[in-house]
Structures are given as structure tokens and as C-alpha cells.
Amino acid sequence: LKLKFNLNALYFLEQQYGDIDVALEEVKNGKIKSLIAITTAALSAGMNRQEPYTEEEVSDMVQIEDLEPLAKALQLMLGSVKGDTTTPSESD
Fold it and tell me: DSSP string of the chain?
């Protein structure tokens, strides 16, 4: 599946949280609901299918063993949104 973080994904998060900075901060703080929300937004923006994913579908798809690589991918995407040029180290 393709994750894409574009204006549609940001808009989806803004609708849910009222403020994009609040949404991004909650994701960075590891809140599970926000992780589901941002993953839903990124999968839906990635045009993986015609209809957007629901949060319930995404939370059913993501397994515990997927959390670490997913968190790293989201961290990279969030860094590009906030202008952060650092990347996670190989040991993370």
C-alpha cells in the first residue's frame, strides 16, 4: 500500500482536530488515535482505491508488528511537512 502525505491528508487531519499543528503534535507524541487518523489520511491520499479508507478499516489492517516501520515512515513524512531535515538513525 502507498502512503502519501499531501494537502488532502492535511485537510483530513485538520477536519478531525481543528488545527493541523495539534494533529501533528499528537502524532509525534504517539497518540494511538492520531496514529490511526494520520495513517488513514495518508493511505486515502495515496489513492490505493476509489473510496477513502475509514479509521476502522485502517485500525484493523495495521498489526502490532507494523507499528515501528509505520511510525518511522510517518515521522519522515511529518519531518518534510514541518521542514525538519533530520532522518531517523539506522539504530532506531
Answer: -----SHHHHHHHHHHHSSHHHHHHHHHTT-HHHHHHHHHHHHHHTTSSSSPPPHHHHHHH--GGGHHHHHHHHHHHHHHHHT------TT-
In this structure, are residues 39 and 62 in contact, taking their beta carbons and an 8 Å threshold? yes
Q: State the Cα–Cα distance between residues 84 and 92, nearest whole angstrom.
A: 17
pLDDT (tens digit per residue) in 59-85 = 999 888 988 888 777 777 777 655 544
Whose CA is closest to 23, among 45, 48, 5? 5
The predicted model scores a pTM of 0.70
